[in-house]
Amino acid sequence: MTAIVPVPFFAISIEERSGQPIRRCYQCMKCSGGCPMAFAMDILPHQVVRLVQLGARARLIAARTPWVCTGCKTCQARCPNGIDISKVNDALKAAATAARVTPGDRYVAAFHSSFLSSVRGLGRSYELGMIGLYKMRSGTYTADLALGLAMLRKGKLKLLPKRIHHLREVDRLFRRAAGADDARGAGAAGGGRGGAAAGGTGGDADGDMGGAGSCGAGDGGGAMGEGGLD
Ligand code: SF4
Ligand code: SF4
């Protein structure tokens, strides 16, 4: 008799959000062998994929790896299954943000949020404002001060921001992206509960998504739904 191995809800949600065929990975490690950022990662790319397969949500959303991935796509070029791990990492960053956990790399996370704040407020990046936000969010007030002053002296940093004319359209883009996230989270939650009920279990490797039986009963679904994706 063929054994049916249930797929953890977290694996399904990350697979849907990233659009990557995570279940096809057979751990050949070619991705990690070519990743130029492997030296800075706490979990190597092939391990990220394996942990997603296992549903190790808590370990993954606290990891540094998704934040230091540069999106160079070397992993996808080398993968015999065409898996783009940068998209998996993007999905993990979104899951970490939704769950409000301390980012695995707070400096990169602070930079991301400062850049997006600038684009949302002005429709473009305003470097000086972005730097101010980044300094406040990262707590690195005096780092690179001399460099910043030199750039100001040379006119590389504009003192005043400029706003684009059609800012509402940018706002609409942000809202649409947030709405797509919500819809994806809701869709994944429905699929996840169904899958868990059919498989009879849905607990992950960390055991943080409710007990195996409770997922089918709805408890795990509620816990997973709190972050939209998770
Ligand atoms: S290269 Fe592809 S199949 Fe091989 S371990 Fe990495 S993700 Fe998995
Ligand atoms: S996209 Fe990210 S995970 Fe893939 S090789 Fe580049 S840095 Fe590594």
Main attributes of the structure:
single chain; 230 residues; mainly alpha; 2 domains; 13 helices; 0% strand; globular; disordered C terminus; binds iron/sulfur cluster
Word description of this protein:
The chain has 230 residues and is an all-alpha fold. The protein has 2 domains: 8-104, no CATH class; 106-169, no CATH class. The protein is built from 13 helices and no strands. The chain has helices at residues 9-18, 30-34, 45-54, 57-61, 65-68, 74-78, 85-99, 106-122, 127-138, 145-153, 167-199, 212-217, 219-225. It is globular and about 70 Å long. The two termini are 33 Å apart. 33% of the residues are buried. Mean pLDDT is 81; it is low at 189-230. One iron/sulfur cluster (SF4) is lined by residues 35-37, 45, 69-75, 85-86.
